[in-house]
What we know:
This protein is mostly helical and 427 residues long. It has 18 helices and four strands. It folds into two domains: 3-78, no CATH class; 108-426, no CATH class. The protein has helices at residues 3-6, 14-35, 54-74, 88-98, 101-115, 120-145, 154-170, 175-194, 202-222, 224-227, 253-256, 264-289, 292-302, 304-309, 314-340, 350-363, 368-384, 392-406, and strands at residues 38-42, 48-52, 419-421, 424-426. The strands form two sheets. Strands 1-2 form a two-stranded antiparallel sheet. Helix 2 (14-35) runs antiparallel to helix 3, helix 7 (154-170) packs parallel to helix 9 and helix 7 crosses helix 15. The longest helix is centred in the C-terminal third of the chain and has 27 residues, at 314-340.
Amino acid sequence: MTVRAVFPHSGLPIAAALKDATLAALVAFGLFAFLIGLRTDQGATGALEITTRLSTLAILVCAVFVGSFARALIFGREAIGFGRALPSWLTSGVANASRFAGLALLIFALLTPVLFYQNRYLLDLGILVLTYVMLGWGLNIVVGLAGLLDLGYVAFYAIGAYSYALLATQFELSFWVCLPLAGILAAFWGVLLGFPVLRLRGDYLAIVTLAFGEIIRLVLLNWQNLTGGPNGISSIPRPSFFGLPFIDGEGSFAATFGLPFSPTHRVVFLFYLILALALLTNWVTIRLRRLPIGRAWEAMREDEIACRALGINTTATKLTAFAIGATFGGFAGAFFATKQGFISPESFTFGESALVLAIVVLGGMGSQLGVAVAALVMLGGFELFREFEQYRMLVFGFAMVMIMVWRPRGLVATREPSLHLGGRTQR
Length: 427
């Protein structure tokens, strides 16, 4: 009996499966030979010494071989469609539950400071997740709605952070005054970025935006008289609750409301502050999608040439996308600066742009709920795998590849229709 008889629909013969598995194992060996098989350690004399990890390399290569062999036997070379193997009642239940996922996440976010008031670690993690949710929603305007691949979004994040830090430390302005100013300055630089890339698309646009992000980082690193250079800016003022600082003493938040002083009060306030900013970003994005400018973004994303043929001003469309996306990046940067109390160029590297872009793509470009779910899964997952520091990036890289293979449009690929005409849904 052949394997094809056992799996008549898509399985490969054993010889073909062995050939595919051997090729996959060779590719894995070429990728992991220097990354996993070799390791450099500091020796007793201070010099670097190379040590081998052949057993770990062999385990990884064997795992790739076995996995590829099993896949070829069962599924062949066709795409793996696990959705068809799930029962209909389960898929319909998941679809119905997804309608209330956004409301459930909002209720959970509102109750997080109440449920985990004594757990400072989870509160800080929640603030971090909401910060990246806000960044993801801001970038979603540029990438998900307008279809402009931006690899330098961290530049607007940095501009917002340094704008707030400089205005607050040099001119002693409050957080509530500096926050809109940081957004306006980030929007100004978003427009400046938009002009050189008006005629660029695809990979060329990505290269220019990547260069813009690196230019901003290098300027912050070398303009020491203004930005402090690699030393950054410290002693950044913290926000207050309508003029009531979160300190222990007279006229403070705790003393005014008759509460015992606790450092957690400031953390809870920051949590609700970034939650409000994120919800503002979400609300503005949803409203803009239903306006003519939002439909122009989506038309340009689908086909820019057809968009021009319809008489849409693509210059204004691109500039508004960059400006509005940069504004929310500036808001997030200002919040980051006031939360940390210290910023430096090392906080705004290309890795931050790549992480935010991964959140948008994995969540589903154009999907607000998908971005929130992806941020929660990725950042929460990073914390769960913190003990496996050497392998967690490998695990997450593998997970992202699997998601792109099985759900190429992201975790949440569906979205609400933009327009209803004559009782029929127009997407």
